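INTERNAL AUDIT FORM
Audit reference: QA-55
Scope: verify that the stored structure record matches its stored sequence.
Auditor: D.O.
Record contents follow.
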Amino acid sequence: MYPQIICHVMGSVDGRLLTDRWTEPFNGKSKGELMGIYAAIGCQLNTDAWMFGKNTLCEGYFPKKFHTTVFTPSAKPEPFVAHRSSDRLFVVADPGANILFESSTVRGDSIVTILPETAPETYLKRLRDRNISYLFAGQDGKDLRTAMQTLAETFGVKSLSLQGGGIIDGAFLQAGLIDELSLVVYPGVDGSAGSTSIFHYIGKGNPSQGQSLELLSAQTMEDGIVWLRYKFHR
């Protein structure tokens, strides 16, 4: 059993994610004002949990890394369910097991971090002491199917909004876990070769192999933004 996963992302018309590269809005508004529309749409999705990739989280919230000289893993790695201070959960994938969390919440939502089974016990203890939940995604922390199954069965998550960046979006695409794409198109361009795209898979092969999209709705929003919703078929 897996949660329903909605990939909710805002990209330029050429499918790029780095907002500092986008052209400015035509009407004199700031990019931040238009990003606010994206955030408001995300609230409408009404999911049980939402998720960032590690890079996105650390850049915006927790830039420091955990350091230890004792790397002994837990003898029996099992999920830890901390006390929840919110109905909604925030999820992050941390295959390096080294995010130095300064808080047990992101935007008021209790954190669940996805770790490798080799995570040091010293790091796990720090998470427990700070009331931060965790679960495991195989030896390398990248088994997203196992992670999503645990998230559903142990944490009761029925729906999750995956909000990037491009690397985690690409990993979920490759795993065949995305049920719906909520694509908010920003009315501007990037145009740079090699700039991070909406799905930025790091690996070999075609991550979208065997998947197709069905358009569910298309809605023109204010300030030239377009909201597209697609269903994934596998």
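Auditor finding: record pair retrieved intact. Strands lie at 4-11, 49-52, 89-93, 105-106, 109-115, 133-136, 159-162, 180-185, 212-220, 226-233.
Action required: none
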